[in-house]
Amino acid sequence: MKTLKQLYAFIITSKLRKSVLNLLYKHSTLRQTPIAKKLKKKQQNIRLVLLQLEKEGLVECLTPEKKAWKVYAITQLGKDVARYVKKSL
User: What is the assigned CATH class of domain 4-88?
Assistant: First the structure.
């Protein structure tokens, strides 16, 4: 498992990863489309970021059985990293 500092580095090296994590931190759960609209980014890019964040254990898909309209939530680790990022900047 990666340390908090390693996950911090993973997040701050991508403005989009940081923005998605921050948005989920504020809203707890969101779908891909509202994230894309709020950040004015393409859904494909948001999907890729969500997969990256999920792989690192920062977010989780609450509806993995669905092909569309998947709901994502920030994990406790994701909240810890988001707070660490805010505190460090």
Answer: mainly alpha
